[in-house]
Write a structure and sequence with these properties.
The complex is a heterodimer of chains A (about 400) and B (about 425). Chain A is of the alpha+beta class and about 400 residues long. Chain A is about 50% helix and about 10% strand. Chain B has a domain at about 150-235. Chain B has helices at about 1-10, 35-50, 55-70, 85-105, 110-135, 150-160, 160-180, 180-190, 205-235, 250-290, 295-335, 350-365, 370-385, 410-415, and strands at about 25, 30, 70-75, 75-80, 140, 145-150, 235-240, 240-245, 335, 340-345, 385-390. The chains are: A alpha+beta (about 400), B alpha+beta (about 425). At the A-B interface, strand 1, strand 5, helix 2, helix 3 and helix 4 of A face helix 1, helix 2, helix 3, strand 4 and helix 4 of B.
């Protein structure tokens, strides 16, 4: 490389912004503490003073390619017009000699090691951010969400579901009262030390509905809904009411950890962040990334609620094993149901399946209604990434043992 | 000085300083490459990921600068000179508006959502105007800034089809109610999510009304496009020279009719193809269906997705065709006062072919081919245009344009899907 001295003069054409007429000029660069400054020597008026532009008064064109410079480069002199230079390689060399500090973007696109380094940093940073950062931020932000907002959202959602898939419960009054009494006793015994949000005291209440199969779900603000189906499954299996109380403890966990509100925040961060970052690649990639991450958050919430249930049941000296049995029974029932349905369909020669869709607004409904059954899930790890709940068999065995490895002591 | 300029101009193209009334042809050039832009683009994507999307305004500016600085008009590159600060502020404002809208929509505040949507609709001409003002004001060639000089009043007057559109649909809606009072009840029932509403009888008169509404809608959209494009060219200015515009409304209607014809042809072609393929695959499945229960669900889901996908695919040739025809129409019929004319020799068929090829490659690579696609499409369009200048490129003079426009218009235009490049 011919060692360029920063007093070297480059030929240029200066356009003053008043007309499209080019004026021949000589350009030189001077190093200054901020970066190179540009000196313009007009050739059209002999003896005219050179004009000096400080580093910050010039829009410096970016270098796009180190090996193959563009044929002509334009320097933005802001209100003083623009400057065209043909000798782009010499211009780049002069800039480097005058102490130009290229930005990160320019270094990334002209130097492979920088690009690879930033890629690695991006992958690590992204993983850490979406694995730990977003859930943490959601937990913190949720502190500022008032209970009133949660209650109004819950009312809206429940009303929509009542108009849609849910029907009034057909359970006898006495049975409802019986379960409500157990629920109230459980709430009474809930120790305040277990709560992540110490000042969060939502009014917990239990309601019954039919429809949606064997299910239970928590709405933000403290309303918990149990379907007739789950009560019936527990009775059919000959399980004690402790199984249902365990499910309720799990749902109380969702309420106390404010999972719905946290999910709203997390999903917002995901959609916006990943949409902006990956939207230019393709919507498939950005939507896929945010759906998969959202499902991972949902599984974490389920684990958290399970831990809460285990802790609460231990605290109140109730067994968690029945709840585990109930989970397995639900999964088993649904498998059979699906099989039956399929057989019927095959007979009828229809290919329409009423794919039941849970209301997205409802907080993590106890959907054992996954498309794949537990056994199949265990054998296909890919499916477990596409599920909103952790593997049912693993959950059930943890519940039967009464402790899970991922639950921290607190 | 004239010596210097003639030297340089002879390098740029066949140019004569002795006969200033001669018309010189300058084909536009694009000196960028797909591989080079890929690196610019991947850097943008990476930095956007790292900064959680906040890098977007910087990425937009760098993209624009890449394309502008590699576009040579009569030998001189274009310049994109928007201030980064303004673009960032526009972006932040847009994000705040989006956030407000999302919060309102997610918490069921219908009134706030309605107000935001209505405000957006009423302000959309203003947004378009400020986006164009920003775009032209940020473009410089040989030191001269382009300008968009349309007044807000002119922009709103040009937007009349937008408001006519609202009137048309009010008319259709009330017409329907008069023709069939029970329809309103059905609509109400549908809103209340009542199961199986009884469909009222559908008379030919109602069909005709609906068809009339649709035709008027399309005509309004064409008129809007025509109005905006002509306003953009007529009110654009380089130095003191104003834009010239020749196309008439019917030219636009013809392009649309041709587009519809292309669309119908592709749909017919696709249907035949799918019919043949689907027929054979159903036969295949029918043979095995006794064991395929679970897979049937998957097949149904896949076929629904494939259907949507096919619609996008089937409309792609028509969309590309329309873009090519519109590009030809524009660049064959506009100019800069009496100084310059443009001629365009873009071939519709090769542009459509390129677009289909690019779309398939982009899909196959999950979007990684997008920068190559963008460059090849831009290159084909850019290099199809020839600038014919009467009297040399040095004669354009004009008052200094100092003011820089705010970036909100650009950010909003971006959100609305108006691309900065193209």
């Amino acid at each position: 490389m011919p060692a360029p001295v920063n007093t070297d003069l480059l030929q240029g054409r200066w356009f003053d912004g008043q007309s499209s007429r080019a004026r021949p000029v000589m350009v030189s660069l001077r190093p200054t503490p901020q970066g190179p400054s540009l000196v313009l020597h007009p050739l059209s008026q002999p003896g005219a003073e050179p004009v000096v532009f400080a580093w910050k008064d010039v829009g410096w064109p970016e270098a796009w390619n180190e090996h193959k410079p563009q044929p002509r480069v334009v320097v933005d002199l802001r209100d003083h017009g623009s400057l065209e230079i043909d000798a782009v390689s010499d211009w780049r060399a002069a800039l480097a000699a005058a102490g130009e500090r290229p930005g990160l973007a320019q270094r990334m696109q002209t130097r492979w090691p920088v690009l690879l380094g930033v890629t690695a940093a991006a992958v690590i940073g992204l993983t850490l951010f979406y694995r730990y950062g977003t859930p943490w931020a959601a937990t913190q932000l949720t502190r500022f969400v008032p209970l009133g907002w949660e209650t109004s959202v819950a009312e809206n959602v429940l009303k929509q579901m009542d108009d849609g898939t849910l029907k009034p419960s057909k359970l006898p009054k006495e049975r409802q009262e019986q379960l409500k009494a157990r629920f109230d006793a459980l709430v009474q015994q809930t120790p305040t030390t277990m709560h992540r949000y110490p000042d969060y005291r939502p009014p917990l209440s239990l309601e019954f509905r039919s429809g949606m199969g064997a299910n239970a779900f928590a709405l933000p603000g403290g309303k918990i809904v149990m379907t007739d189906g789950i009560v019936k499954t527990a009775t059919d299996q000959g399980l004690p009411d402790d199984a249902l109380v365990g499910v309720l403890a799990h749902e109380i966990g969702h309420v106390m950890y404010r999972h719905t509100t946290r999910m709203v925040v997390e999903q917002g961060v995901l959609n916006m962040g990943l949409g902006l970052a990956l939207g230019d690649v393709s919507t498939v990639v950005s939507t896929g990334a945010s759906v998969l991450t959202g499902l991972a958050y949902s599984r974490n919430h389920e684990r958290e609620a399970d831990c809460y249930a285990i802790a609460l049941m231990n605290h109140t000296a109730l067994p968690t094993a029945p709840m585990g049995k109930l989970l397995l029974a639900i999964a088993h029932d649904e498998e059979e149901e699906e099989e039956n349905k399929k057989k019927e369909e095959e007979k009828a020669g229809q290919d329409k399946t009423a794919a039941p869709k849970a209301d997205p607004g409802a907080s993590s409904p106890e959907r054992a209604r996954q498309r794949k059954t537990a056994e199949e899930m265990a054998s296909h790890p890919v499916w477990s990434l596409l599920s909103s709940h952790p593997d049912t068999v693993a959950r059930a065995s943890e519940l039967e043992k009464g402790h899970a490895p991922h639950c921290t002591k607190n | 000085m004239s010596q210097f300029s003639s030297d340089r101009d002879s390098a740029a193209g066949p140019m004569s300083t002795f006969m200033p009334q001669n018309i010189d042809a300058h084909p536009m050039e694009f000196t960028g490459s797909g591989g080079e832009y890929f690196r610019v683009w991947i850097v943008n994507v990476l930095l956007s990921i790292v900064t959680l999307g906040i890098y977007t305004p910087w990425a937009r500016r760098r993209t624009a600068q890449y394309f502008y600085s590699h576009t040579l008009v009569a030998g001189s590159p274009l310049e994109f000179t928007a201030q980064q600060r303004k673009m960032v502020m526009g972006f932040v404002l847009l994000m705040l508006i989006t956030l407000a809208y999302n919060i309102a929509a997610n918490t069921g505040q219908d009134a706030a959502v309605g107000v935001l949507l209505l405000t957006g609709a009423v302000l959309s001409p203003l947004i378009w105007g400020s986006a164009m003002r920003f775009r032209l004001g940020a473009t410089r060639w040989r030191g001269l800034r382009l300008q968009f000089t349309a007044h807000w009043k002119e922009v709103y007057l040009a937007s009349w089809p937008l408001f006519a559109l609202a009137l048309v649909w009010f008319g259709v809606f009330f017409g329907m109610q008069i023709l069939s009072p029970e329809l309103a009840d059905v609509l109400q029932e549908v809103e209340d999510e009542a199961a199986n509403p009884k469909m009222p009888s559908f008379t030919p008169v109602m069909g005709a009304l609906l068809l009339l509404g649709l035709v008027l809608t399309v005509l309004c959209f064409i008129r809007l496009e025509y109005n905006y494009k002509s306003l953009l060219v007529l009110k654009a200015q380089v130095g003191a020279e104003k834009g010239r515009w020749k196309p008439v409304y019917m030219d636009f209607v013809k392009v649309w009719l041709a587009t519809v014809a292309v669309f119908v042809l592709t749909v017919v072609g696709f249907s035949v193809l799918i019919g043949v393929l689907a027929g054979s695959s159903i036969a295949l499945f029918a043979g095995q269906s006794s064991r395929m229960g679970l897979w049937m669900i998957l097949v149904i889901i896949v076929s629904i997705i494939a259907g949507i996908f096919m619609l996008i695919l089937a409309s792609a040739p028509a969309r590309a065709y329309r873009e090519a025809r519109m590009f030809q129409l524009m660049w064959n019929n506009i100019g800069v006062s009496h100084v310059a004319r443009f001629k365009c020799h873009l071939k519709s068929s090769s542009y459509v072919g390129l677009r289909i090829k690019n779309m398939l490659l982009t899909l196959l690579t999950l979007g990684l081919y997008r920068p190559f696609a963008r460059v090849s499409e831009y290159r084909m369009k850019c290099e199809s245009v020839t600038l014919h200048v009467k009297g040399g490129v040095e004669q354009v003079a004009g008052a200094m344009v100092r003011q820089q426009q705010g970036g909100l218009g650009d950010a909003l235009a971006d959100a609305a899907g108006l691309d900065l490049i193209g």
